[in-house]
Each structure stands twice: as C-alpha cells, then as structure tokens.
UniProtKB/TrEMBL annotation:
It is an enzyme of class 4 (lyase). Keywords: Glycoprotein, Lyase, Membrane, Metal-binding, Signal, Transmembrane, Transmembrane helix, Zinc. It catalyses: hydrogencarbonate + H(+) = CO2 + H2O. Its EC number is 4.2.1.1. It comes from Biomphalaria glabrata (Bloodfluke planorb). Its cofactor is Zn(2+). SMART domains: Carb_anhydrase. Residues 33-292 form the Alpha-carbonic anhydrase domain. Reversible hydration of carbon dioxide. This is Carbonic anhydrase. GO terms for molecular function: carbonate dehydratase activity; zinc ion binding. The chain crosses the membrane at residues 296-320. The lineage of its organism: Eukaryota, Metazoa, Spiralia, Lophotrochozoa, Mollusca. Residues 1-29 form the signal peptide. The keyword Zinc-finger does not apply.
Length: 324
C-alpha cells in the first residue's frame, strides 16, 4: 500500500518533482533471572545484549508512537475480540513472574485474537503489566513522547505454532495487544477483580488461582477498532524480533491506590518491585500504521492524484522559466 503524509507545500513540491511522474497507483519474554530493569546495573537494559544478542538488534520494542506521523492503513480492519468474553472452561492463575511482573496465565479452552490485519489467528497465552515508581513513568510505549503510569500486554502466539515458547523465535510468531493506563482519582473496579488477590503473590514466583473474568473488562470500548500497529520485539530478554504489536488508541483508568498495589510486589531480591519497563528503542525506519483517519494522512489514491497535480505544476513552472 502507498500512503502519504501531508506536511508543507514545499515538501509536497519536492516530493512531487522527484516521484510524482512515476506514481502508479510479550511479550515480554522471560530469558531467566540474569537481568533486571535497573539502567545503572550491568544486568540492566543497557547490557541485555551481552547475554541476549537480539536485544541489540534494529527492530526492538518499545517505541515512541508519534500519532501525527502514523500512516492510516485501510487494510487494518476491526479486530475480532469475541473470545475475550469467554469465561467457561477457562482458568486464570495470578503469578509474580520471577520478580519481573504481575502475570495472569490462561489455561483451558483456547481463546483467539483474529482479524485486524493479522496474518492468521493468534491464541491467548497470558497478560502482564509494566509500571513504574511514579505517575508519569511506568508504561513501556510512549504516545507523542509521553509516558503513562502503567501498560498492559496481552500475549498471543500464532495458532499454527505449538507453543508460545516456540513461537517467540519465529517471524510474526507472536501478537501482543497493549493498553495504556491513565491516572484516575477513582479506583477502576474492574481491576480490583485481580488486585484483590495480590496478597497471595507478594513474593517472587508466588502464584494463586483466581476467579475467571472477561478480558474485555481490561480494555477500552474502542479496543477492536482504534489502534496502532508496528513490527517489533519482546520488551525483555531474549528480545526476539517476532512480535506484531497492536497498541490501543484509547486509555483505561487506574488510581494511585491501585498502582501502589503493583508496587507492593517483591522482586527477586525481596525488595519492592517499583520499575518494570524497558527504555524507548529507536524506530530505525519502521512505519507505524493506524486505523485512525487524520487530516494529516492521505490514502494511496489521493496521494497519487496530488502528486500528479503537483508534477504538472512543476512542469508548467519549468517551461515558463525556460521561455522567460
């Protein structure tokens, strides 16, 4: 698909003169216990690549999402999230995963994420969270260079691949749906369905079975239709570049009281788990696509029409200057 971003008249003229005449229509993985999120540590994000070479590759996550430069893609149809409502024959286990995150592991009936431009069906494996010690520092992805207090990752593996572990090293083996949380003065009662059981997972590797709830309760109402999409990696070791990322355009509320429940969990050294996010990675030429139409975005057909018109103006201007 060809898309164009409108900037200034000058950039349009330059682009038109050059190409107008030719226009033709996690995931957080889990590499083990030899890493942490402390940027000052030799086991922190700046040194992950030493033991996990993929962490130093060129298509890493998380990234900043510049909403004005995201390219509208009509091929990104609505996601089919109907399985997220299923609770029968589904078991949920709440886990303090190696002192790195709070995770809800799914077992039982297979649930799938479909549509939305994904190359197949993706089976749900788990969801987990990333947070920080302060209100403005906790999410992994940024929107327009702003962090948010927390981020949810819903991890799936491709249906044709046997397990999430095997899918993690395969191209497009994983699909992760991410949701950013905004601070609210009031509690989000839907989050409490999980937070009420945090006393059972305070220490690293503790787990407890919890009553099954609908995953849609953790999502914004527009989750299936308004989102951003890019190709990236696991945001923790081994950082395999196998993830199709989908980031919800709208937010979910969380209170400071609820954030403090996450911060009460313990890390591997039995200290408070305050910081569980990787720093922003370089985009390195990747394109962020979106389902959102914007006045700054043109479709492929409109792009070609505009370029051809500008090319004609360039030609007229050139002939005029030659003659006079």
């Amino acid at each position: 698909m060809v898309t164009c971003r409108v900037t200034t008249l000058k950039s349009w003229i330059v682009a038109s003169c050059l190409v107008g005449l030719f226009c033709r229509g996690p995931v957080s993985g889990d590499g083990g216990d030899d890493w942490n999120y402390d940027t000052s540590s030799h086991e922190g994000p700046n040194y992950w690549y030493v033991n996990y070479p993929s962490c130093g590759a060129n298509r890493q996550s998380p990234i900043n999402i510049d909403t004005r430069s995201a390219w509208y893609d009509p091929k990104l149809t609505a996601l089919d999230m109907s399985d997220y409502d299923v609770t029968a024959d589904v078991k949920m286990t709440l886990i303090n995963r190696h002192g790195h995150t709070a995770e809800v592991f799914y077992k039982g009936k297979s649930l799938y994420l479909r549509g939305g431009g994904l190359p197949g069906d993706y089976e749900l494996d788990q969801l987990h969270f990333h947070w920080g010690p302060r209100q403005k520092n906790g999410s992994e992805h940024k929107l327009n260079w702003s962090h948010y207090p927390m981020e949810l990752h819903i991890v799936h593996h491709k249906k044709e691949i046997e397990s999430v572990d095997k899918a993690a090293s395969k191209p497009q083996g994983l699909s992760v749906y991410a949701v950013l949380f905004k601070l609210s003065e009031e509690d989000n009662p839907k989050l409490n369905k999980m937070l009420n059981y945090f006393d059972g997972i305070i220490e690293s590797d503790k787990e407890t079975q919890i009553p099954t709830f609908s995953l849609k309760e953790f999502l914004p109402a527009t989750a299936d239709k308004l989102f951003y999409r890019y190709d990236g990696s696991l945001t923790s070791p081994p950082c395999y570049e196998s993830v199709i990322w989908t980031i919800a355009a709208d937010f979910v509320p969380v209170s400071e009281k609820q954030l403090n429940r996450f911060r009460e969990l313990h890390d591997l050294e039995d200290g408070p788990l305050l910081d569980t996010h990787r720093p922003i990675q370089k985009l390195n030429g990747r394109i962020v696509r979106t389902t959102i139409r914007s006045k700054y975005i043109l479709s492929a057909a409109a792009c070609c029409v505009h370029l051809r018109l500008m090319s004609l103006l360039c030609l007229v201007f050139y002939v005029f200057t030659i003659q006079y």
